[in-house]
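Title: Prediction job returns without error message
Component: structure pipeline
Severity: low
Priority: P3
Assignee: unassigned

Description:
Job completed but the reporter wants confirmation the result is attached to the right record. Sequence as submitted:
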Amino acid sequence: MTDVGPFGLSVRDQALEADVQAGLAAVEEGLFEATKSEVPFITEAAQHLVRAGGKRFRPLLVMLSAQFGDRYAPGIVPSAVVVELTHLATLYHDDVMDEATVRRGVASANARWDNSVAVLTGDFLFARASHTLADLGPEAVRVQAEAFERLVTGQILETAGPQDGRDPVEHYLDVLGGKTGSLVAVSCRFGAMMSGADETTVDVLTQYGERLGVAFQLADDVLDIASDSHESGKTPGTDLREGIPTMPVLRLRERAARLGLADDIALCELLDSDLTDDQRHAEALRLLRAHPALDQARKDTVRYAQDARSALAPLPECAAKTALVELCDAVVHRAG
């Protein structure tokens, strides 16, 4: 039994382990090849986050989903490269929007160079993803385009905030479905689709990926508050500093509005203050880490992970299904 992929996922089947390890190694090679440029500086910037590593969560899902068809089909590895390049491109752009200084334990591209380089490098990665995608056929292009539209829409909805009268938690879950769920769903869809799995299997895995993606992001929300930079690979409380309401903050505000407790209201006021001040920021993190809202956000993570697990019910029992179920458990464990 060997740990592969994110969170030390344990694969107990030797044949599946070999397939997944070989697939992820091929994806890694594909990522470095896709990020090469005739201009050395572009290569350096484009490979900055590739070299920093990462969980390769989305390529892993491509490999596991491909097990339900012809797992050696030629489009599987390129489609995994596409989803990971797309994900990496969004990280370059996110770090500019969040003014982040650390990503995956190294300086973010915008901190190492500047915002312009980071944005243009993200655009370069999108272009390279599109180039690879074009060889996978018009249906793959359509699927990726729809997912990318949802991803951008989710980001815009997050920036705009909920409309008057809209429940902020429901709004935020819609944001996560677009920002994170869409690309995770496509990872599962591509794996199944490229392997030639039947339509029902493709749909089941797509639904699983959507729900798992939301759970994954909710776990990230918890980690952003609860972890240190060594554990998460990025600066804790980045979204907090930027005033971006993640699930722990939304659950806090919901509780403050419902119960009217003085400590809750005071913490909300602290969050509304200038958290670019390091002392205020540290105090806000300390109080949120001890607040029931963080536990509620963990429960939200568990709920979506359980929904993802339930979505897998129609699939036949096999090693790949077991691994997908264990990923649900791993996401929950990650959130503590």
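Comment from assignee: result matches the submitted record. The radius of gyration is 20 Å.
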